[in-house]
Every structure is written in structure tokens, then in C-alpha cells.
Amino acid sequence: MKNKLWLTDRYIKYLLTAKSRHHIHSPFLYKLINDVFRDRSTTVQMLAVEKIRELLMKDRSIIHKTDYGTGAEAAGNTVYQVQVREVARKSLSTSSKARLLFRLVKYFKPKTVLELGTSFGLSASYMAMAVPGTKVISIEGCPVTAELARKHIRGSGIGNVEVVTGEFASILPQLLRSLNSVDFMFLDGNHRKEATLSYFELCKKKAVNDTVFVFDDIHWSKGMEEAWRTIKSDQDVRLTVDIFHLGLVFFRKESTPEHFIIRY
Fold this sequence. Notes:
Elements: H1 2-17, H2 27-37, H3 44-58, E1 62-67, E2 78-83, H4 84-91, H5 95-108, E3 112-116, H6 122-130, E4 135-140, H7 143-155, E5 161-165, H8 168-177, E6 184-187, H9 193-204, E7 212-216, H10 222-232, E8 239-242, E9 246-250, E10 258-261
Parallel strand pairs: 3-4, 3-6, 4-5, 6-7, 8-10
Antiparallel strand pairs: 1-2, 7-9, 8-9
Helix pairs in contact: 2-5, 3-4, 3-6, 5-6, 8-9, 9-10
């Protein structure tokens, strides 16, 4: 109940401050809003992934879920039994978020996409299908969930996703050393301030001028809002976009530092 009240309060404040595209003077952002945010079309690829969502939401089979303390208040490493459909209900990116990720990847055409938090692989599938030549690397802490993600991704005929299993703090530094750059990053696997900032600092070292970072649930808690404010104030960040459920970060050196709250 506390989280719902918090989010309702934050959403009302968001609606009161969010701007439409007509109040945007940045040509880069105006085009992004017009070509990506306002595009609500549905593709064949999207429908294919949504069929997987439907199956997961009905799956009553029991799995042993490993949780590394990714909740707003949680900490530690726990393993518990839970139905697949319950995990899907709580952890899958919504259709709206996933479709926006699809359009963002299609628009920016990154060579390398890094996702922190695979869950059952729906958002990774969306991003991979957007540009088949893009390499999507997704990290998932739970071995059982990761294997189910691989199964669904393979079943969809998607060949440009690699699911890496392990705790983010252990896997990420080694993985980043093997990459020339991170062109697009989606952080959806941790909702704690300290972890979010730690992963931002690590991934930022591999950011290039056209890199895009996307953070999930930036208003989820006081800690996540504090993390978002810290990220916005980073000297390397030139442009941020708050659409409430997601926060976008750009490193474009040609941009004047600006921070926008956009109605989506």
C-alpha cells in the first residue's frame, strides 16, 4: 500500500510538470518524441513476443527463484519457490515499456545493447527483434529464470541475444572489459539507489557520444529518485528525459545540458 500511495503521489506531480513536444526547443529531442514516443504502431515482431507473455502469465509450474535483493527494501540472497506466472506478473516489463524499447533500439540502431535484468527475456527479445544485427547481452541473476529466458528466446527464432547468468556486481565488470562500447543500456534488475549508481558508473566508462541509457522505475522509491537526481547531475550526462516509468540518459557532447520531463 505504501508503494502505491508513493507512486500515485509522484505520478500526479509528474502530470503537473510534464511538457508536450510543443514546449521542446531541442531539435534532437523534438524528433525523438515525434518519431519514437508518439509512434504507437504494432509490428508482427511485437505480437510474437506478446504471445510468449500470455503463456508465461498462465504458467502455474513451480520454479526455485534466486533473488539477490533487487527490491526497493530487500537485501541479501534468497531462494524460494514460486509459480512462473507470479514471477511474470511482478517482473516482466509492461507491453508499453517493451514496445518503447523496441522503437528506441530501432531508432538509434546500437551495435551493442546491454540489459541488466533479463527476467524471462521479453524485453531482450523486443530489443533484439528491433534491429537483427544488434548484439543484445542480458544479465540475469537467477539461473532458473535465465534458462527459461533462453528457451523462450530460442523458441522465437531470435539469434542475437546472449543471456549471461550471475550476480550483477560479479558479472558486470568482467563483461564490460570484453566490450568496446555500450551503445544502449537498459537497467531493470535492481531498484536500490546504491546499486543503480554503481552500475551507472561502471557502464558509463563504456559509453560513447551516441550512447543511450534507460533506467526503469526512476520514481519507484525515495532511493531511486535520489539515484536519478545524482545521474542527472553527472558531469558526463548532457540530456535526460523523464517519462515517469522510465528515465533516458544521453551523453551527446554537442547538446547543452538539459533535463526534461515529458508527457508520454
